[in-house]
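Chapter review: from sequence to fold.
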Amino acid sequence: MSNKKPKTPKGQRTVMGFDFGTKSIGMAIGQEVTGTATSLGAVKARDGIPNWPDIEQHVNDWKPDLLVVGLPLNMDGTNQQVTFSAKKFANRLHNNYRLPVETQDERLTTTDAKARLFDQGGYRSLAKDNVDGMSAVIILESFFEQMWDEE
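The token string follows.
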């Protein structure tokens, strides 16, 4: 008898999103069924290497079916240096947790996150952890929108 959880059907999965950064990685949790996400704040990173025990704690607590990593691209869609680091991070997530990992274009998410946070609480809400967490929310929400558009 395997203790592996049964595969959750597409559209009903719990999805964890990541906004990769070299000093901080924003995290969010969302549900495909509602298309919404909630910020989990951010975990510290040093030169792009995250505090893995913090990420593991969130993965164990939330038991996501899928992980989504924001892919930082140049405005013209080409890769930049941090794009390769984000892809490496996505590969490490897959290897560490044996969960499917997808990437999502994240152009302009930081700008959107700052605007949303400012609307919610003015300048005081623009702390780095808040911005990174909200960026992860926007990455997940755009992933959900794209998923439904493809249906």
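Two observations follow directly from the output. The chain has a mean pLDDT of 85. The CA atoms of residues 72 and 83 lie 5 Å apart.
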